[in-house]
Write a structure and sequence with these properties.
Chain A is an alpha/beta fold. Helix content of chain A is 34%, strand content 22%. The first copy, chain A, contains 13 helices and 15 strands. The two termini of chain A are 23 Å apart.
């Protein structure tokens, strides 16, 4: 059953061979979807026939957002910590412990309900691919449980046992690293595609370069791809370690030296910027222009989590990227779609070209520039095409 | 037909006699609505009977937002101007001319469709009272036409013939002021509750203190209430003029002298801050804490308009107020509800106490603090209670 989507005032394909510029823009476009996959893309005037037709009424269509960094398996509420921070308290990751305590207490059903609610909230805002990390269990059983739940909603699951050193291991970081790289990794690897570590010398709760290297190499040996929470609170070894080990992504990249930028430019690691964190911790933003000028591949993601940034809105991150990091609207949208796909080493999402997944998002606007021009407005929603015969936007 | 609304985890009444603090917070609350009006508010355990019951499922309920500053009658698109500004072009109000040209060209039906779409978009985000200005017609007929359309959707209509000096009056500002205060005012007053003027010495397009005084006093003589676009681009006479003339609100207040703050503190004029403008023009934010410390009544509004700020989201403005202007979440929410009501000299909206309009907004969250804690996420929607027997949230 094929579906012809028409009435697309502006289509972002992210394929320069299909349209204008890096975004591969096509005006007055159409898309044919067949079996959940894009079968044809081009000007509406040249569209082929299809079994059914959906008209989006002169709106812009973009690839669904690819949110490559999110922490969605947790319990508890940290709005009070947020308020304290806005009144002047500093963020150092220490509050993660309160989420760990609540998560360990929570039932599978409670964790699953919260997780599914957040994924649905994201989808209602146009996010069609999301990575989900563990990292609030921090015991063998709780980490495996969180990843098992995450695997119910996405294939992009990340084992983050090395999120922080839990309270019961205070002063015994090496022992905790042995746990993470030993029995915890063994229990979690079956549910995980990726391994990640919070590499941060400036936090008493996180992991230094040697510990991060131990975690990442153990994960690699277990067949997992690599990701790193790198250079969030200070310049440190995270980014260079990520590049050296061939990690798919170095996330945060808020404090970078020239050597860090050179390493990223010379490697295959995507720099994933999370400007919602700087918004919600009132911190200086990463220097996106420096990275783009150096030729680094940049992604945008939410870092949706109950502590440092509880937004689930990729559109908000696009608006912040333009306002605060001086990215163009086109650069920001690319980073939030194709960039996120690159950070997950995926070629089937983040673009709308023949063979890609038919993850279309429709905007309540004639152009993608409205994502930055209209900050905070819920303009985007995922479009279900060809599912149960309905082309109606889901919300 | 009365309706009992239950399942309210946290109710913001904005009436300190009904609950805790300035917000008059009630936990585990209930509200009885009768004939579109709040009939009873209090703890759910003491709620009276009613004809029907609506359960909001453990969510927070707040008074619908009161957006006291918006420009919603226009045609055209200025996303390209937005992009140029993000690339370094300065905002001085000059781009307003392009919207004026498009608005004059547009049919009533086209203007009405855009206006109603924006009002619906606002309502979908929890805004239940909105002020709408003219100011993109700038001829006698076009200003009257815009206000006639605005009056179809809100009683809070504002005549802003003195938005900019239109191109055909370039170099003849005094003649244009004569038109505004003469035939244009006569044609517009029947459709307007308020008169407003863009008082800004720093813009070649706007009105200096003498011109603003002429506009405001003419409006007052015609029976209109007064509002002023004041001190947006530079410190100038706008704020002091607003206070001197007893205006309901001085809007923007981005550049204030000590004398301006003293005047506001000693008068009855609300300082309406529009942080979406500073976000979308990449400008320094107003100093809200200075105003609050001086005892000034502060409101928040969107300034939704196609040029300097095209957000329609009061929740986004609340998040900006907390992040960028160091208001607490409680101060920001009060300013976006009761503050907006004060800026419109309304006592029937912006609060949920017996006798107030039953403009309830329900949050996809347990507490109002999530408006700041979860920036960019569409958490708020207006709740239709007792309309056509349905309590289902509208979107």
């Amino acid at each position: 059953m094929s579906t012809l989507v028409t009435g697309i005032a502006e289509l972002v394909t992210n394929d320069p061979s299909l349209g204008d510029g890096q975004l591969g823009l096509v005006s007055e476009a159409a898309v044919v979807v067949d079996g959940g996959t894009v079968a044809w893309v081009g000007p509406a005037a040249r569209a082929p026939e299809a079994d059914e037709r959906v008209d989006v009424g002169g709106r812009a269509v973009i690839p669904g957002f690819v949110d490559s960094h999110a922490h969605l398996v947790f319990a508890g509420d940290r709005s009070a910590e947020f308020e304290a921070r806005m009144s002047g308290a500093r963020y150092d990751g220490g509050g993660i412990g309160s989420t760990v305590a609540a998560t360990r207490e929570a039932s599978d059903d409670a964790l699953r309900a919260r997780l599914r609610s957040l994924v649905a909230e994201m989808r209602g805002q146009g996010t069609t691919t999301v990575e989900v990390k563990s990292g609030y269990g921090l015991t063998v059983d709780d980490e495996a449980r969180c990843l098992r739940l995450a695997a119910e909603v996405t294939p992009e699951t990340t084992f983050l046992g090395a999120h922080v050193v839990p309270a019961e291991y205070a002063g015994r970081r090496d022992e905790y690293v042995d746990l993470v790289t030993g029995p915890m990794l063994a229990a979690c690897a079956p549910y995980a595609r990726w391994i990640d570590v919070f590499c941060e010398a400036a936090s008493a709760h996180a992991f230094d370069g040697a510990a991060a290297r131990a975690v990442l190499t153990a994960g690699r040996d277990a067949g997992l791809g690599l990701r790193v929470h790198a250079n969030q609170l200070s310049a440190g070894p995270g980014v260079r370690l990520a590049v050296e080990l061939g990690a798919a992504s170095a996330d945060h990249c808020t404090h970078l030296t020239d050597d860090d930028v050179d390493a990223l430019a010379g490697g295959t690691t995507v720099a994933t910027l999370l400007p919602g964190v700087e918004f919600s911790t009132r911190s200086p933003y990463p220097d996106a222009r420096r990275l783009l000028s150096a030729g680094v591949t940049v992604a945008l993601a939410t870092d949706c989590n109950p502590g440092s940034c509880f937004t689930s809105s990729m559109a908000f991150c696009v608006a912040l990227a333009v306002r605060e990091m001086h990215m163009t609207a086109a650069e920001a949208l690319w980073a939030a779609t194709a960039g996120g796909a690159a950070a997950l080493r995926r070629t089937d999402v983040g673009r709308l070209c023949p063979g890609a997944r038919a993850d279309l998002a429709v905007l309540e606007a004639p152009s993608f520039t409205h994502l930055a021009y209209r900050p905070g407005v819920p303009l985007v929603r995922a479009l279900n095409v060809g599912y149960s015969g309905s082309g109606h936007p889901s919300r």
